[in-house]
Each structure stands twice: as structure tokens, then as C-alpha cells.
């Protein structure tokens, strides 16, 4: 019985378990701190929001989920945070594990804000249920997988605005130092000049994300759930990871501007293609004995076509832009891992993020002047821009490398992916405390972002539709 072995599994936690069939726990007097609810933690991102204790947040977290592997993995991660030697957390969990977890969460109404991370399919309905109940929501990407669901996103945001609650998606990449620097340099006309228009074959804006399916943690495979490979449930690469790239374009290149997806964006071309996995590779990355029935239509001769790679070309206000989302099975070079690269072209220079062998797979920001005669003035402008950022990042510097300028980023500013979730949580909680501080452009740009990702996939499928 779950009631016997779950407490033993997570004995490091102060824990109350509530199961289907039992009566609701007696509601305590609302605490002074914000109370968080974790809903259906189907992705490890849900746990990362609790890697550190959050100021102003109650240490008691209410977890509502179906009982299964996802929940157990989530609890194990929290155990790890609570029992680590350095700066352990002190989370206390109260868990309701049953098929009616969503309905019970709404009925209990034991928290103030919901953390939601998991499968893309059906997520927008869960977000809407939370907002209708007057709960703030921090929802991990992707919110939707199909453009037909854009009206649902708009309805959720409208309802959240009406109720005075925050419905926010987790764009952690806004806190990555390379993106922050890129953002500041792009928007300095003394450095970039005027944003170029570009063309379909030579876009003015290009971002690429490259990820690997097979990863080792402490020498052992980091298993992915089988549903991760179901593009109906999880989406293709553009539907999922592409939300970060689309957000980067809007947030970085068009800051503080409300983009109207119906007027400002035109999707031009798109394609998708698979990573083909052998049965042995699929077993290694999932731990499953065989391909599940829902993936069999994509399997031929024990080789599975996983449609996860995407390219989309579009314009924003006439500016040609391209996004590439690339998945590979496994990294081969020492030190190689997930990368995000890109550039923005202007009349004076090209500002670029590279993360290749030359950079030892560490992201670096470069400014490449278009004309050698302007390099001295651009170098001076870069140094002035970095100096203007010294209150937060005092040790940034510009290095003259001949034909290009490299921004020197100290290691202390290179916070890892997991650290960005604490920064995201802090931003979200600040909006929860004062909803009026949420920028007005967030709402239209969320719609624009999901229009780019969903229409890109749909356009690719029109000409290269995967088997169903």
C-alpha cells in the first residue's frame, strides 16, 4: 500500500500523505507566507523550483498528482535537496496522490500559487482550471502544441488579468548571462547600428538550440520517460524547446514592445526531420524493453523515427528570422553538451553567441564589426555599455581579438541551468505580490511566441507529415 511505503521512501521529509478515499485534512489558518502547490510534476523542472528555500514562501508544499513514477521521482529529488550536506532545504510536503488530483486540488484550495511542469498536451486546461480558481500559476513550457489552442491561451491570460492573478510561463533563458549581455549589446545603436532586414536565405536574426537525448549522470544514463518521445503528448522540438528561442527573439531584439501575432508575424517556411533510434538506443535512453504501441507507426525494422528536429523561417515586422531546434542522440566530443547559439545582424556589426570547440563548449559573446574602419568606435561603445552594467555585473570586459571583439564573462556569472529556476521563481513571486508590475507586453508576446512555435510545426507537417 502506498500509505505504508511512501513515508519510508521519503523519510527525510516532514510529510503528510493524503490518499484517495480519505477525508480532506483540516484547513489550518492561512499562513503569512505564500503557499505553493505542485501540480502533476511530470518533469524535473518542477523540483528545480525547490532547489533552494524561497524568501516569503511557506516551507510546506502541497503536492497533487496521479500516483506513479513521475511523482516518486519528484519526491526523490526533493529528498536530495533536503538531505544534501551543503545548504540543505527544509521543505515539508503534503501529498494527495489519486486520479482526481486536479479536482481535489481545486476543492481543497490549500495554496496560493501553482507550479506546473509536465506534458504539453492538456496543460492549458490545467492552467485554466487553476486561474478560474483564483490561483497564480507558474507553468513550464510548452503551454500548447497546436495553434488551434491559441484562443485558450488568450482566454487564460484575460481571465488572469480579470481576477488579478498571475499566469506566467517559465522562460529561464532570460536569466542566462550570455543572453542578458546579448540583449544589452543588440539594443545599443552605437554597437549594432540599425537592425538589418535580412532575407529568407540570409536572415537578420538566427538562433539555434542543440540538445542530446542520451546523457550520463555520474556515469549512468539519465533515463527519459517513454512519453517524452510521443510528439502528440510532448510536441516536436519547436513546440517544446522552441518556445525559449521564440521568446529570446521577442525579449532580446524587440524589448518592451507588444508584438501582435496576427499583424506583425508572417510564417514563411518550415520543415522537420527525425532522429532515428535503434531499438537498443531507445532501450538505453528510456529503460523500456520495447517500443510502446503508440510509437509503433513510426517504427520500421526496429528503428524509430523521432520527429524532434525543426527549422522555421518567419518575419517580425518585416525582419527575417530563423530558428533551428536540433536533437542528436549523444554527444561525442569531450565536454560537449547542450548548446544555444545565435546572432543578430545590424548595419554596424553582427552580435553573436558561439559555443563550439574553440569556446570549449562554453557560450561566449562576440561583436564582429562589418567594416574594419569602424572597429575602434564599436570597441569603445562595447566597453561603455559593459561599464553601464557594472552595478550588477562589475567585472565584464571587452577583449580586442582583431577582427572581432569578445566579451569577457567571469565564471562567477555563469550560473548553471538549474540556478536560473531560483531567479525565475523570484521574478514570478514579485509579480504575485504586486500583479500590476507585470509588463503589459508579456501577454501579447506570449501569444506571439506560441503562434511561432505551433504554426512552424504545422507548416512543416503540411509537406513532411510524419506517419500517424
Backbone structural class: alpha/beta
Report low-confidence residues grouped into runs of 5 or more: 1-31
Question: Number of helical runs?
Answer: 14
Distance between the termini: 39 Å
Shape: globular
**Average pLDDT rating:** 89
CATH topology of the largest domain: Dihydrodipicolinate Reductase, domain 2
Q: DSSP strand (E) fraction?
A: 25-35%
Biggest sheet features: 10 strands, mixed
**For the record, what CATH class of the largest domain applies?**
Alpha Beta
The CATH architecture of the largest domain is 2-Layer Sandwich
Task: Offer a quick outline of the entry.
With 468 residues, the protein is an alpha/beta fold. The protein has 14 helices and 19 strands. Helix 6 runs antiparallel to helix 14 and helix 10 crosses helix 14 (442-464).
Question: How would you explain this protein's 3D organization?
Answer:
With 468 residues, the protein is α/β, with parallel strands linked by helices. The chain has two domains: 2-170, NAD(P)-binding Rossmann-like Domain (Rossmann fold, 3-Layer(aba) Sandwich); 174-464, Dihydrodipicolinate Reductase, domain 2 (2-Layer Sandwich), CATH 3.30.360.10. It has 14 helices and 19 strands. It has helices at residues 2-9, 45-48, 69-83, 101-108, 123-132, 150-163, 177-186, 231-234, 237-240, 242-253, 279-286, 375-388, 419-433, 442-464, and strands at residues 14-19, 34-39, 57-65, 92-97, 113-116, 136-139, 167-169, 205-214, 216-217, 220-221, 265-278, 299-300, 303-316, 319-330, 339-345, 349-354, 364-369, 397-400, 405-408. The strands form three sheets. Strands 8, 11, 12, 13, 14, 15, 16, 17, 18 and 19 form a ten-stranded mixed sheet that branches. Strands 1-4-3-2-5-6-7 form a seven-stranded parallel sheet, with helices on both faces. A two-stranded antiparallel ribbon has the order 9-10. Strand 3 (57-65), helix 3 and strand 4 (92-97) form a beta-alpha-beta unit. The longest helix has 23 residues, at 442-464. Residues 1-31 have low confidence and may be disordered.
